[in-house]
Prior knowledge:
Elements: H1 2-23, H2 37-55, H3 59-81, H4 87-108, H5 111-127
Helix pairs in contact: 3-4
Amino acid sequence: xxxxxxxxxxxxxxxxxxxxxxxADEPTTPPAGKPDRHERREDNRENAKKMAKELDLSSDQQxxxxxxxxxxxxxxxxxREDTTLSDEQKKEKSKALRKSSEEQVHALMTPEQQTxxxxxxxxxxxxxxxxxxxxxxxxxxxxGGxxxGGxxxGGKPRRN
Length: 160
């Protein structure tokens, strides 16, 4: 009797230890309602094509803008992966990179394209096509605050 009890306890312990290893083969899925990075990347490509058409960008402008976006993306990835930076430093560097990218793209456009781009951004912000973030990624800039309860800033709740 004692031996079978020991055997069952040992077997149960091994099953508990093996459970995480068995789950490692399961694909991870993003949280419900939040697109994964591949979906976001595809959405960004579609948005870039739409903007290029609406702004009547030349193929040269499109190529230069694509290079700027790639360079910015690489720099953003490096910032995210930099373990020497605090979260606040990462946020500041990312903000500076987005601003720089925006300025570089703006400089490539004609005055008419710049005006049209500004108009399109403001219209897009009013319609809420950027999800819970504002026009340039700041949280809580649109939407009138806290319609459904929860966090008044519109983003994830802070944990202390």
